[in-house]
Amino acid sequence: xxxxxxxxxxxxxxxxxxxxxxxxxxxxxxxDRDTAxxxxxxxxxxxxFMTRGDVLIVNRSRVIPAxxxxxxxxxxxxxxxxxxxxxxxxxxxxxxxxxxxxxxxxLFGEDxxxxxxxxxxxxxxxxxxxxxxxxxxxxxxxxxxxVPLPPYIERPDEPADRDRYQTVFAAERGSVAAPTAGLHFTxxxxxxxxxxxxxxxxxxxxxxxxxxxxxxxxxxxxxxLHSEGYSIDGRALRLIADAKSSxxxxxxxxxxxxxxxxxxxxxxxxxxxxxxxxYAGETDLFIYPxxxxxxxxxxxxxxxxxxxxxxxxxxxxxxxxxTMACYRHAVNANYRFYSYGDAMFIK
Length: 347
Prior knowledge:
Helix content: 10-25%
CATH topology of the largest domain: QueA-like
Number of domains: 2
CATH architecture of the largest domain: 3-Layer(aba) Sandwich
CATH class of the largest domain: Alpha Beta
Distance between the termini: 26 Å
């Protein structure tokens, strides 16, 4: 399969630049997985389309203010997008421009709040960095970092983004991009879901390079994803295993949740686990058409970039032709796309 099969034209005006005033006011496209029948509604009505006994799984990873701006001794400016925190002093980052982040060089925070040294190159775009001041990595990011809005949001980050580019259930910090399907939920909506008999539980996948880097090869099967860290506890596994054994639906909120659930299923964890234990690991699972889903029955997801691994996952779940038809319909109906955009429920 070639990436051109999941290419599409999107008018720039449909790329959401800011969130709506209310999280759950986003539009929601309902798609029947069996018939591809479409309906249009709003996200706040989601509980009406769930079934008593459903298990809804969200990603509770918290986005860190991962973008740092530093200067060289000569005055040149470099942007560092943190991709992975290694320990209290060291982290990996995408450097832009990479030619201005030389191994051994000391870089200075814009306001002189910290200094760091480039330890080594990690591939073509990434570097490993060590702080050379007293602060730790999380401290520097919280005080000096910017919200890592994706490049298609063509504005600087604002104070409001620290809240809105974060889900209401975000808890464990570590992501460098939001698990965007979760951005539509509110505390009140979660309560309504539980009132209609839906069980809500969570896991963690820290969004990193594996999720947002573009695919390099035109032949889908030739691509590989970077690994990302995940964790899921035995209590969540018990809820999911019980649902599967009793024929109830497992509903994944987003592609990140989907990848974790299908990973633990393939690793045999869902068949043999301790309810009092937490299971952690790394996943580089690449889901594209032809993939056999063993755990996820329903999917809530945003509208994704063309030629992306995220769109391939949706195509694997719904089918390429049906997915691309839904995207064309969304464009014609003026849906808002990408991180701050609208959502789809494949039910």
